[in-house]
Design goal:
There is one protein chain. The chain is α/β, with parallel strands linked by helices. It is built from 9 helices and 5 strands; from the N terminus they run αββααβαβααβααα. The strands form 2 sheets. It has a 3-stranded parallel sheet, sandwiched between helices. Strands 1-2 form a two-stranded antiparallel sheet. Strand 1 and strand 2 form a beta hairpin. Helix 3 crosses helix 4, helix 3 packs antiparallel against helix 8 and helix 3 packs antiparallel against helix 9. The longest helix is centred in the N-terminal third of the chain and has 19 residues.
Length: 293
């Protein structure tokens, strides 16, 4: 996120990054440093939204009462267990970001962490009753029904990122398998149908896409540690290349143009819609009845 902001971490000038980076103490105690949703606006007027980590043990520990219930109300005041509340809160964050952003970064560590893929698949199923941000007026809520603009569901363009990959995991064969797994996982989602219609493979360099059939954006970032293979791409080089590629992705567009101020006001209304979503509420009750939580 700091790289997308154009913050230069290698500069000799002492400057604080726009988004906080974990301190040594926070890493040692496995604590998180981001809370809620933190916005920043870059010099290029790019609005960046960073969220607290989802499915984080430290987030769960902070919101858990001694009896296992949640200190945070996520469903209209209903009392939930902390584990279920964390699950629903992750879904709410995913639905909100997918409903308000142009590009949604889905960042996972390593090649075997599929939790966020499952989260995005669930959010895709549950966000159908959320409005397009540009169709929310500042007063009455929705554009008048006699508008000649056809209704449609808005979804951000997802960009999947795998970080902390070792040299042996960054082979062309492994990356190709990961891309095929990604496409197989989301083949029935709106992400694939939308990107198939709107995206061109020419938007992503050949080093970072499957040249045959990939319609979902997948990027890989190596570990920060010294490379075992001196010819392998470095962490900083990969970050900067990905920044250029992400900012050039053919992103989703709202139904109507909106100003930054209008987008901010609409986003607040969309968060209210997410909090009161009947689909998410029904899904929450199904999880409660399943006995999993």
């Amino acid at each position: 996120m700091n790289e997308l902001y154009a913050f230069d971490s290698t500069s000799s000038v002492e400057m604080l990054p726009p988004f906080v980076i974990k301190s040594v103490e926070e890493r040692a105690t496995a604590r998180h440093c981001s809370k809620g949703i933190e916005p920043r606006i870059s010099a290029e007027r790019v609005i960046l939204l960073d969220t607290q980590p989802v499915f984080s043990a430290s987030v769960l520990a902070e919101m858990m009462e001694p009896d296992g219930s949640s200190t945070i109300s996520v469903m209209s005041g209903e009392s939930l267990s902390a584990e279920l509340a964390q699950e629903i809160m992750a879904i709410q964050l995913a639905v909100f970001l997918a409903s308000t952003c142009h590009i949604l970064l889905v960042v996972s560590d390593g090649v075997h962490d599929d939790d966020l893929w499952h989260l995005m698949s669930t959010a895709d199923l549950l966000k159908g009753d959320i409005s397009d941000p540009s169709l929310l007026s500042s007063s009455s809520g929705l554009v008048e029904k006699d508008s000649k603009v056809p209704e449609r569901e808005y979804t951000a363009t997802p960009v999947f990122v795998r970080t902390k990959l070792r040299d042996q995991e960054l082979t062309p064969k492994n990356i190709l398998l990961l891309r095929k797994e990604l496409m197989q996982y989301f083949k029935t989602s709106s992400f694939v149908t939308k990107t198939t219609r709107n995206h061109s493979d020419e938007q992503v360099s050949s080093s970072n896409r499957d040249t045959d059939s990939s319609t979902l954006n997948l990027f890989t970032i190596p570990c920060k540690e010294k490379k075992e293979n001196p010819r392998a791409e470095s962490y900083i080089s990969a970050l900067r290349k990905i920044r250029d590629q992400i900012l050039s992705v053919n992103r989703s567009s709202f139904m109507r143009p909106v100003s930054e101020h209008e987008w901010l006001k609409s986003s607040a209304k969309i968060w209210d819609q997410v909090r009161n979503s009947s689909k998410i509420s029904e899904y929450c009750r199904s999880l409660q009845d399943s006995g999993m939580y």
